[in-house]
Amino acid sequence: MTSFLLILLEQQQKFEFGLYEIAKSLTIPGWIVVFVLIFMSVYVIAIGIERWMTYNTAKQQSRIFAQKVAQALKNNNIEEAINISDKHKNSHLAMVVSSGLKEFQAHQGAEITSDELEASKRALQRAIAVKQAELKRGLSGLATVGSTAPFVGLFGTVVGIIGAFVSLAKTENAGIAVVGGAIAEALVATAFGIGVAVPAVWLFNYYTNKVANFSVEMENSASELIDYFIKQRAKQLKG
To answer: Does residue 5 sit within a domain?
Structure first.
């Protein structure tokens, strides 16, 4: 029993679990897995920061824009409303409102027909679709990272286990010092893959919900703008 404990202690002293030791034990496929996961993690961080700044700016500008454009439309000043929209290009509402107002302005001076109202509706829907695509930029990449990173880590795990078995096959007196590095490589790859995937999935769900909220705001703005056009048409008919 004492001799067994001495052998185990000697093997543990030979193998130290640390980043440097794990790095030394990495094979070429293992390094490929690590670099791929590092690239994925950098992508997640970059998209996360960029989207947060974009959405935060859009939210702040939209608050200011909504108040100004509402006042301009209340005064029936279409030109001023368009100029306000052009000054708030980062606002998700400004692009939609600007498209509808420009379509409506093109028919000013003449009677607004139902066909022209439909044209304004289509212009608004096109603007919403374009803005939604801009707001979703990069989110598909987050979804891809979230779904594939665990499998990349699993590939590293499989490579590490294969290396462990190869070491066992080549060594007569197999012990933890022989297979420890390969097993560590396998476990680290799995943990790294999960560690990259979890933030990516979280950010994807969070930002998808943000885009959904922005879409509702754009749809509501488009609906209110159409109501404004209808009221203007009613005034023309009465006049």
So the answer is: no
